[in-house]
Structure formats: structure tokens, C-alpha cells
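Project outcomes to date are best conveyed with an example. Our students and postdoctoral researchers have been running inverse folding experiments weekly, and each run begins with a structure described purely in C-alpha cells. The record below, which covers 470 residues, was selected by the lab manager from last quarter's runs and is presented without edits.
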């Protein structure tokens, strides 16, 4: 029996505890005191103050399994074997404590000895100039030079504007020929899913002054990140992150509701995987106090939830189906995240309300949009007008991205500037009227009735958003 997701999470944290690390609970998906980030997207993100020296860490060695959301990967979800908008990132961190040698050694020890992956299938990559990392992999770990891949700045140098930055070394796993794209030159670094990146080891050793001048940092740090789902997929030797134990249980549940077998039809599978992923995101986001709204995080949540609804429609699922899927998410993940169980009732209610709201109009909206598309095709037009897109948004609750996505499937696009202009006019009118309860087809007052005291505070109609207290 291969290790399960919940077991692997525990093994990772315990392994790094045995190496002197303090295991900390996952931080909230909502960044704390960080305006630069909408949602936490890596294990390192909530630890930034420790890296910059702004705050003193509780220990110089820390390990976490961090909930992450990457909406930037939304297009990949369901199409690649390795991307979700939600995933868990395992990480070990050193704040001026150990450096490259230990980081590399321990990552190898964990993968090959603790988890038992075949070393012959693992390939490290390094930053092209990082001879120090090369020496460690080659001399100390005994990896032949031809198995160590040197990549440029784009792939193997971690940097965000000015400040601490440095080279990284990633670990890839060869999942075998059957996953390869078959193109000549397909090897480590290829975009296909044969050589799957599983672990990124970042060595923050430089400070960039903002003008491209690098100086060695006095306090060198280690920041690593490994996707738990990806690790599980290679350990369990399955096709994708959607086939690992806990996520497969959820995917099977979606299959059952849709009455569609997985693995028979590509488009069906994409929809099954999209719903599976988005329900995970939505469940975790609400458990961290994010509420559906038209801005910021709340909009991301709304967009994911409505996108899941639409894929449900594509599969022929009728009525509300997301809350019971969220229950399966909770059952699969409460081991690592007891707050899911604690807030279960609240989470299910928020999802049910939002879905109900959207369900009232989605079929009508989809009908109107297909009329619009038919009309455009007749006239040979390629771009949907901003007013039409706004009507779908305002009356039927279609997030712009959803409209865009449906249009793209037909090789059409939308006048986004026109959309925003129409929205601005509506905003002004609304502000004047001071009475906006039915905005974007969603009655924003509905959440008040759930129990706003649980996690969030409604801050009024002006910005149509909820402020999280978490
Ligand atoms: P990829 O190149 O495959 O998109 P990445 O280089 O963007 O991955 P990093 O930013 O290096 O990923 O994040 C560290 C690790 O987190 C990755 O090695 C991977 O295991 C995991 N990871 C990153 N993005 C995702 C995702 N969307 N879904 C699941 N796991 C992810
Ligand atoms: Mg990526
Ligand atoms: Mg990468
Ligand atoms: Mg990477």
C-alpha cells in the first residue's frame, strides 16, 4: 500500500522535525500585513518577515505544509497532470542557519530513503553558474554530471524585484516514457508531464539593490517548496494529481454526481478535474474567512465557484451539487486541517447560498450568451461588445472571465475596455442610488443571514466587499 496524502504530509514534517525544525501550522490563505499578495501562493510567502529580518522567527529552522492558491495556473488546471489552483506546499526553511549542503542532502534523503523513490528516476537542476550546488550534487551526493541540468535565470533563479534573491535547484521525477510528448529533445525541463518538477530548493544568498547589483547576504537562507499532491502522485505511481487517494475520492464523487465515467472522454475528464480542483479551492478559501464578493479575494472565490457550476452544467449535472462535494473535501483533508471540520456548517452554507444564487440565472445566462454567439457568427463578428458582456455580468452573474472563457472556446473574444466602461457607469449610478442589493445578479445581503460574526464582517455597499477578520 503506497503512502497516502495525509501520511506523506506527516512524514515530511516529522522528517524535518528530526533535523531540528519547528513544525508550524499552515498559515491562512489570506496574507497577513502583505498588500503585495492577494492569496498565499507558496510556503515562503507568509514567512517573508522572517526572511527579511523584519521579525524574529520562533526558531531558525522551520517546516510547514502550507495551503496555497495559484489562480495564475487556472488555465492549466484539468489539462496538465500537475497543476491545481489549490495545492499544499511542503517546505523546510532556514533563516540564516543551514545552507545549500544540508538542504540538498536532506531533500535527497527524504525522497530516496524516507519515501523510497527510485534515485535513478530523479534529476536535479541547478542555476547555470551555481558551481557550488553542482559540486554538492555531483561530489557529495554522487549524481553523475550528465544527470544534473543547468538552466538559466528564468527557471533557476528566484527573484522578485529588489531584495533577497538567489539561485535554486529543482528536483524532477521521470514518470516514464508513456507520459512523454514524444518530441525530439524531450528531457528534463520539457513542458510535458513526463519529467515532473516536484521540489524547488531556493538558496537566498544575494541582495539585489534594485539596479541589478548583487551582493552576498550576511544571513543566507533556505526556502524550499514541494507540492504534496505531486509528491503523492509519483509515490503512488498514478497519472496525475487528480488520481492520488484523497483527490481521487473527490473526483469519483464528481463522477458519480455527473453520472460520467472518468477516463473515457477528454473534455468530460477536463470538466471533472476542474470541478474537483475548484471545490478544493473554494472550501479552503471559505474556511479561511473569504466570502464571495465582486472584488479581490472574494472575486477569485466567486469566479472559481461559478466556473465549477458551469462545468457541472457541461457535464449535465442539474441543481446544486457543490456543498456535498465540499463535504468530501473536508472528509479528505480534516486530518491536516481540523478547522475544516470546525467550520463545516458555515462553509457548506456559504457555498450553498452562492451556488443557489448563480443557479437561478446560469441557464438563462448561458442561453443568452449562445444567442449572442450565434448572432456574432452570423455577422462574422469576432468580438462581443462590452455592453453585452456587462449585461451577462450584471443580470446573470457571469464573471467576465467566464464569458471570456466560453467565447475563447469558439475562437472569439470580448471588448474588455467596453465592459469596464459599462461597469463604471453602473457603479456611479449605484453609488448615487445608495441601494445596491442585486449587484452582478447576486444579492449581496444574503451572506448576512448566514452568520457574519463567524468569520467576516460586512463592510457596506460602497465597495461591495467583506472584510475578513482572520
Ligand atoms: P511548474 O513549473 O510545474 O508550474 P513551478 O516552478 O511554478 O511549477 P514553484 O513555484 O517552484 O513551482 O513551486 C514549488 C513547488 O510547488 C513545485 O515544485 C511543485 O511541486 C508545487 N507546485 C507549484 N505550482 C503548483 C500547482 N499549480 N499545483 C500543484 N503543485 C504546484
Ligand atoms: Mg508554475
Ligand atoms: Mg517550474
Ligand atoms: Mg519551480
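After processing, the design step wrote out the following sequence:
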Amino acid at each position: 500500500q503506497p503512502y497516502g496524502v495525509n501520511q506523506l504530509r506527516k512524514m515530511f514534517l516529522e522528517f524535518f522535525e528530526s533535523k531540528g525544525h519547528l513544525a508550524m501550522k499552515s498559515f491562512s490563505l489570506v496574507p497577513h500585513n502583505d498588500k503585495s499578495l492577494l492569496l498565499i501562493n507558496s510556503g515562503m510567502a507568509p514567512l517573508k518577515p522572517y526572511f527579511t529580518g523584519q521579525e524574529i522567527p520562533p526558531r531558525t529552522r522551520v517546516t510547514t505544509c502550507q495551503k496555497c492558491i495559484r489562480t495564475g495556473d487556472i488555465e492549466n488546471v484539468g489539462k496538465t497532470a500537475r497543476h491545481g489552483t489549490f495545492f499544499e506546499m511542503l517546505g523546510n526553511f532556514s533563516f540564516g542557519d543551514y545552507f545549500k549542503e544540508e538542504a540538498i542532502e536532506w531533500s535527497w534523503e527524504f525522497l530516496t530513503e524516507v519515501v523510497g523513490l527510485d534515485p535513478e528516476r530523479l534529476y536535479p537542476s541547478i542555476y547555470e553558474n551555481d558551481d557550488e550546488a553542482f559540486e554538492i550534487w555531483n561530489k557529495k551526493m554522487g549524481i553523475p554530471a550528465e544527470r544534473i541540468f543547468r538552466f538559466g535565470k528564468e527557471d533557476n533563479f528566484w527573484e522578485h524585484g529588489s531584495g533577497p534573491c538567489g539561485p535554486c535547484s529543482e528536483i524532477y521525477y521521470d514518470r516514464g516514457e508513456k507520459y512523454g510528448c514524444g518530441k525530439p529533445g524531450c528531457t528534463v525541463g520539457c513542458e510535458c508531464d513526463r519529467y515532473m518538477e516536484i521540489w524547488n530548493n531556493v538558496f537566498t544568498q544575494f541582495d539585489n539593490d534594485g539596479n541589478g547589483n548583487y551582493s552576498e547576504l550576511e544571513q543566507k537562507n533556505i526556502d524550499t517548496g514541494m507540492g504534496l499532491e505531486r509528491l503523492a502522485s509519483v509515490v503512488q505511481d498514478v497519472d496525475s494529481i487528480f488520481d492520488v487517494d484523497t483527490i481521487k475520492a473527490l473526483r469519483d464523487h464528481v463522477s458519480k454526481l455527473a453520472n460520467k465515467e472518468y477516463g473515457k472522454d477528454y473534455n468530460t475528464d477536463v470538466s471533472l478535474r476542474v470541478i474537483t480542483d475548484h471545490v478544493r479551492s473554494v472550501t479552503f478559501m471559505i474556511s479561511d474567512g473569504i466570502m464571495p464578493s465582486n472584488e479581490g479575494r472574494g472575486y477569485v472565490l466567486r469566479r472559481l465557484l461559478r466556473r465549477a457550476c458551469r462545468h457541472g452544467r457541461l457535464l449535465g449535472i442539474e441543481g446544486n451539487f457543490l456543498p456535498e462535494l465540499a463535504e468530501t473535501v473536508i472528509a479528505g483533508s480534516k486530518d491536516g486541517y481540523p478547522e475544516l471540520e470546525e467550520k463545516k456548517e458555515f462553509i457548506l452554507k456559504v457555498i450553498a447560498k452562492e451556488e443557489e444564487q448563480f443557479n437561478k440565472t446560469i441557464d438563462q445566462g448561458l442561453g443568452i450568451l449562445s444567442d449572442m454567439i450565434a448572432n456574432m457568427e452570423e455577422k462574422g463578428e469576432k468580438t462581443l461588445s462590452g455592453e453585452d458582456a456587462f449585461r451577462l455580468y450584471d443580470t446573470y452573474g457571469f464573471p467576465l472571465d467566464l464569458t471570456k472563457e466560453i467565447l475563447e472556446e469558439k475562437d472569439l473574444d470580448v471588448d474588455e475596455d467596453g465592459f469596464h466602461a459599462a461597469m463604471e457607469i453602473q457603479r456611479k449610478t449605484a453609488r448615487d442610488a445608495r441601494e445596491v442589493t442585486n449587484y452582478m445578479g447576486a444579492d449581496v445581503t444574503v451572506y448576512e443571514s448566514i452568520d457574519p460574526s463567524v468569520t467576516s464582517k460586512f463592510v457596506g455597499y460602497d465597495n461591495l466587499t467583506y472584510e475578513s477578520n482572520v
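The pocket of adenosine-5'-triphosphate (ligand 1) is lined by residues 70, 73, 82-84, 87, 89, 197-200, 225-227, 229-230 (CB under 6 Å). The longest strand covers residues 195-208. The training component of this project remains on track.
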